[in-house]
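Possible regression after last week's pipeline update?

I re-ran a chain I had predicted before the update to compare outputs. Posting the input and the new output here so someone can diff against the archived version. Not blocking, just want to make sure nothing changed silently.
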Amino acid sequence: MEHDIVLDEHPKKRSRRGIKLFRGRDAVPLDESGAMDPMVFDAEEMQLLAQDGPRSPTIALGISDTLVFQGEGPDGCSLVRAWLAPHYVLPRHTHSGDCTYYLLEGSITMGSQELHAGDGFFVPSNAPYAYEAGPAGAVVLEFRSQTTFDIRFSSGQLERWRQMAVAAEEHGDRWIELREQDLAR
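New output (post-update):
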């Protein structure tokens, strides 16, 4: 039996207007979705990192963002699912829109605070933040009040970029295995 949703007081008028269903299997990689502008890095820091020498190719495999839902127009909302590998280091950055984060699985550390599944945090537009995934990694849902946004990495993050590289060197093989498991879900 199919159930309609009544949106007004007239029982003969039934509509699903405004309701949009989405499925996780239809999610697209965030960097291919057009929802997030290309990443902006501090050019001087990137030059210094390049002088450190080559990085493990697994460094890019420590995070997987997918756009699960994107509303219509600039005033729509969006939902991103971020999978983070164990010990993945996310450098301080900002986004051009308010965002509420909810930890679905695992844990993260923000400064001196440790957050676990069921916890969350709110970051207003252009406020810098950073975190590191816990020993089991994390899955974070990102609820934004807009359909497109940017990402700008703050300057002064050279050591965090280096920490990310060390984590990739130490845990990269495990990241590959866990990422494949997550993608198979």
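Follow-up from reviewer: compared with the archived run. Helices lie at 30-33, 43-51, 158-184. Marking as no regression found.
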